[in-house]
Every structure is written in C-alpha cells, then in structure tokens.
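Page 37, top half.
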Amino acid sequence: MSALPVYRWHLAPDGYATRRQLRARGLRPGGQSVAAQLERPRRRRPPLVAHLYRIDLAKPVRPMTPGRWRAHAAMMRARRTCPACRRDAGYVIPPSLGMCVPCAYPATAPCAA
C-alpha cells in the first residue's frame, strides 16, 4: 500500500497540477490516477484537499464534435423549458421552483413602472 505525497497549500513542486490547472492549459488527466495531494489546514475542521496530477502524463482535451454541440444545446434547451407552460424561459429554471417564475408565482404581476 503506497501513500500519496502530501504538500502544503501553494507549495507543490513543478510538474503537478489540479484538474482546473490542467484544463486551463488545454489538458485533462487522461486516466492517470492521483499523483499527490495538496492540503490546506483549517481551524477546527478537517483540511481542504486538492488532488494533483502529473502534467507530463496529461493528454490534450478532446475537441467538441458537432454531435456533442447538438447534445449540449438540447440539454441547455431542456433546462430552460418550463414543464408547466412548455415555453422557453430564457434562463435556466431554478430547481427549487421546478418551473419558471411566472408559473410559480401567478398572482404576482410584473411591476409596470
């Protein structure tokens, strides 16, 4: 059983990056396992942990194909469509309401000022 190397926050050596840092460089972990961890201590709580991946083993991000763009557009359209009135709300429907704001609060008329 091997333990991962643990580094303090902001003290990781060169050659390691988090998922977000890899993405900013146009890379992805590409199936590699976590190579190290960053820990940020906190008072009276467990430390924050960030997983680090090796940059030399990272692979380029896969490009979006036309099919993926269509699927993404359909997914976003479904998130904007109100299930009550079946109209495109123009914004993502809040999960807390489950429907667009006019359908959730029908008695509240918009202010005509």
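Page 37, bottom half:
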Amino acid sequence: MSAVESRLAELGLTLPAVVPPLAAYQPAVQSGVYVYTSGQLPMVDGKLPVTGKVGAEVTPEEAKQLARTCALNALAAVKSVAGDLDRVARVVKVVGFVASAPDFTGQPAVINGASELLGEVLGAKGVHARSAVGVAVLPLDAPVEIEVQVELTEA
C-alpha cells in the first residue's frame, strides 16, 4: 500500500474505483509530468447521493462534504494514470463548480471541502491554487464538481 493510501486509511477513507465517464472523455490524462482530471462529480457507488442547488435543496454543509467526495474521486482518477499516488509531487490547481441558488455566494466555503481533503491526505503537497465558481446547473443536477491538476515525480 502506498504512503498516500495508508494516510487515506488512517483518515478512515478508501480510494474508490474511478468513476466511469458520462460522455466522450477520459477521467484523467497525463501530459508530461502533469495529470489533469476531468470534472469529478460526487458519485458514490455509481450514484449521486444528493442533487439540486446549493442554497436551496442542498445545504452548504452537505455541499462541502460532497466536494470532499469529488476530491477523493479525483485522486482515484489521478492514480488511474499515474499508477501510484506517491508520485504526486504537488497539487497545482483545483477548480470547483457549485450549482448555486441565485442568492448563494458561499462557493469558496463549499470548495474548501475538496481543498481540506487534499491537504489532509497529501500534507504540504496538497496546497494548491484554486478557483470556486457558482454555476446555474451541473451534469445530472449534481451540486458540486471538481477538476484537479497535479504534478508528478518521474516514474
């Protein structure tokens, strides 16, 4: 078991299977020393546990937990192309999308769920640049979607 996966186990987390694509794309691709994930929804066992807009049907606290799930799914996608999460030199960038009720402005706090998970799992390597964007709707009416870019060490 890799050190990163050992850390996940210490946190009571398990790396899920890679979420299959919903359309014509790959969950993650590697270009040089970088891995770019496609948008990761908070899928659990092939389903969204919650749907709707944050600030309406979904509370900010629920959405923050869903963002953690998105980040865990992103790590699974990274591993699928890197082979080993111990190769992650650093998380470079996270982009988070929050399906928001018209008056909801707490997108950064929601996406903190993903950022905090990456920090808990990867330590200093999980510190990253980030954008948190409110949108009208996401695929499958998901409340949150996350993209991650990581830099790898050489194989």
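Margin note: The mean pLDDT is 97.
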